[in-house]
Amino acid sequence: MGLLLAGAGALTLAREMPREHATVLGDPCRTPAHVLEPAAGYPRGTALVFHGLAASEAIMQPLGQSLAAAGWRVYLLDLAGHGRSLVPFSYANAETCAAGAVDWLEHAGRIQPDKTVLVGHSLGGAIVVRLADRSPMAATIAISPAPLVLPVRMPSNLLILAGEFDLGPVKQTARELLAAAQGTRASQADFIERRAVGFQILPGELHGTMVLDPRVWRLADEWSARAVGLPDRVPAAAVARPSGALLGDLALIVGLILLVAPIETVAAKIFSVHPRAAVAAIPKLSWRGALLRWALAAFFAVGALGLLSAPVYLHPIGLEDGDWAALVALVAGIALMVLEKQRVEAALGIDPRAQAFAGATGVFLVVIFALALRPDFLEAYFSVARIWRWVVLVGFTWPYLIAEEAVLGEPGGWGRFSLFLAMRGLLWLAQLFALLVFWRWGLLLVLTGLGFGIVSIGQRLAADALRRRGAGPTSTALFDAVVISGLLALVLPLT
Fold it and tell me: Which of 197, 332, 349, 451 is the right S-S partner for 301, CB 3.0 to 4.6 Å?
């Protein structure tokens, strides 16, 4: 069933995807881009689309596909340090490279300013607003814009969108932009004079889900059409991403999830690993005792590292917040191995075949899921720069995950799964505490907490399936480390 669903999903996506090609612009930053050609064969105009922090142009694909279906030529651009970009990330570099990409496209004759709209989400939303001082275009669409220093002049035909459940600072920024623009106005005369302003809070939306909302796609197309002098617009059904593509996405993801256990079974046979008896010798630990020790280790790690400014010494890792994540995992892991010495010693054991089985399975699962979400993954993200960071992070996170596997014990029961969620929740709360106290490290780890929580649940289910197929606590912890570190290395911006 997994093969059938994954295959059907892949075929559906291949049929529904617009014509596109990857390229690298000729600007000084060599900005990577995906160009989506308009479905009608000729463009109504051009949309330059910028993603947010710790993302890439891939997250903007649904919005880009919707605009392409409506007749726009769309450039999905990677910001500095993100996706395929090899320019080190900083907020200044992200803005400078974005401006350089827009300038190059204009000077190369790829875009006409009076037929071009700038679209950005989160950090990208802040950047497109600030580009008003350097690269004014026909319209600017800021989706959940991150906090920013306002430009000297407001963007032409500015549309501001935010979600009902968006981040507090984001909604505040949206209102500040609206106040600076002196309120909404959207007559045709306003569009002609390039002084139109729109503002909308979308009910039920979170910060990260805004770019996946068909309401946002329709608003972006409608505003863009009016800005370039096209009051008529295509029907709403043509603007939204085709339902077939959404079903294809769902079928592909569900199919891959169903394939995880069969993949692990095949891998266990390839590496000649056999199911083993439960490790009954590891003494059980009460919820209260486990959570108390987890809280002590997590808050000790972030407190001690923050006071010592320790992440400064690990900047060569070269990932935004990656140095902090690596050190917190290592120090918390060592603390837990001391606190849980008896359980860790009972769980330790090195079986080369089981280690190879767990490590290879982790790498394979990360790669196939990334390929499903981003077909050009091998070209876009599987670079030498990110691979060696992946390996380094595995070494830093392994001790913590050994302690976690030792305390959780053998698979079984909702109580154990709930304990796991509570342990990961304490780690996130410690990160939030450190961010509020030191305000220097961990911002991305806090902002992406929901995504890491979802991945943690999937990782736990896959790890339990692995243990049932013969992997011990130590080798299962290696699988955990490969999956979590792969995610960090692929998501965090290069610095």
Answer: 332
Token pair for 466: 């692995």
Task: Please tell me the predicted confidence (pLDDT) of residue 380.
Answer: 54
Sign of CA dihedral 362, 364, 368, 374: positive
User: Residue 141 CB: number of other CB atoms within 10 A?
Assistant: 30
Domains of the chain are 2-243 (3.40.50.1820), 271-491 (no CATH)
Nearest residue to 144 via CA among 127, 131, 156: 127
User: pLDDT confidence of 294, banded at 50, 70, 90?
Assistant: very high
Residue 381 near residue 487, CB atoms below 8 Å: no
Q: Helices 449-468 and 414-438 sit at what angle, rounded to 10 degrees?
A: 150
Length of the chain counted residue by residue: 495
The neighbour count for residue 133, using CB atoms within 10 Å, is 14
The pLDDT tens digits for 236-286 are 444 445 456 667 878 888 998 899 999 999 998 888 887 664 444 555 667
Residue with tokens 């690596």, as numbered in its chain: 326
